[in-house]
Design a protein that fits this description.
- The protein has 109 residues and is an all-alpha fold.
- The chain has one domain.
- It contains 7 helices and no strands.
- Helix 1 crosses helix 2 and helix 4 runs antiparallel to helix 5.
- The longest helix is centred in the middle third of the chain and has 23 residues.
- It is elongated, with a radius of gyration of 16 Å.
């Protein structure tokens, strides 16, 4: 489970029912998550952490090639490709993965 779903389950009964219910409705869950304040909070948190990691990398006394490599990794945090991950991919999992957060959470419960 990721931070978005964990916080939303904790703060929003509708999300909790959709994730924990026997017949999860992914489209409805996506709509509820996109409309929630938790989504914006988590996106801001991720952006802040990525920016902090980039700043830390710039301050490390290592070769420029390693700094570039580590900076590239920060761009790959969400999808592994450097492309931004859509909210649907965050819920269902990247196109290259099997399962996703809903499946992962359901199996853990």
């Amino acid at each position: 489970m990721n931070l978005l779903v964990a916080l939303a389950i904790e703060r929003n009964g509708q999300v909790r029912d959709l994730v924990l219910g026997a017949h999860g409705d992914r489209a409805r869950l996506l709509k509820v998550l996109v409309g929630s304040e938790v989504h914006a909070e988590v996106e801001t948190r991720i952006a802040d952490l990525v920016e902090a990691s980039r700043a830390a990398i710039a301050d490390v006394p290592i070769s420029p090639s390693w700094q570039e490599e580590l900076a590239a990794m920060t761009r790959q945090i969400t999808t592994g490709t450097g492309e931004p991950m859509t909210l649907l991919e965050k819920i269902e999992g990247p196109k290259t993965s099997s399962g996703g957060l809903i499946d992962e959470y359901s199996q853990a419960v």
